[in-house]
Amino acid sequence: MSIIDNFSFNANLGGMAGGKGLIGLYIAGKLKYARIPFKVLRPDNSVRNNEKPGLSSRMSSHFFEAELFDTKNASSILSLLEPHIELYLFEELHMVEDTAGLFGVLDDMIDARLSLNILALTNDTGARIFPIAAYCLSRGANIKQHYGVCQHSDLCRGKAVYSQLIAKDGTVVEDSGPIIASGDVLGSEEKKIEGEVDYQPRCRGHFNFEMPRSSTYQGGIFIPDPKRIPREQLPSWLLNRQKLVRERLDERIKNSHHHKDSFFAEYPSSHLIAELRQRGRHKVKTYIQGIRRR
Ligand SMILES: [Zn+2]
Asked: What's the CA-to-centroid distance between 205 and ligand 1, angstroms?
């Protein structure tokens, strides 16, 4: 069976110490064992200078090598794509800068039915959703959330939905806006105060909502309109694959006219949508009622 039939867009989101790295290693381990070609990709600002880029977890000794792309320019991902790769595992995707054009590139990968699995934090240290998490939700991906245990004190066993930015002396650090500084890797803002702050997974009761927040950032949830890559800049195999996906969909719709009942039974929702587009709402309603009466 071709990977086009196995299309999947998965996201593993959550908080720090939630075991996302472990999930990534679990997926990578299974793919490697099954000899399924895959790649781990991560933004170049998510790796410390002296660190070997890869997929790792503090909860495991396993490691898979990763390739880095430019966090300021997501179209750099395109040069890392290869026709024989069946799944792309994206690590630390919340670190990509908002202006990098990431969503347009991901949309193109989804349109070609490449299988994606995205690992990213849901919230920043101001408890605001990262745009990548909102993107995953809006695309109807298979989404799971993973959370760790609150580290406010040894006795709290609360679910750590939040990340708290704290100073060495234990005081909460003022939130300075839409910075990418969450988790345990270096973001652009964190470099300024490197060594002086730490992050802690915190539960609802132990997350400080009273900390001063940046006035420049409204904290609204938004997804910038994906700026699509100009078609002529896309690899030709990716374009061909998108075309093939559309052709297969059209073929299914065409066939459904010859075997309506069995197709409705087999693919009720997708074919309903196709019929809706082709026939208009009223006719489809009549059509469905006709099927039910039989
Ligand atoms: Zn707690």
From this structure: 6
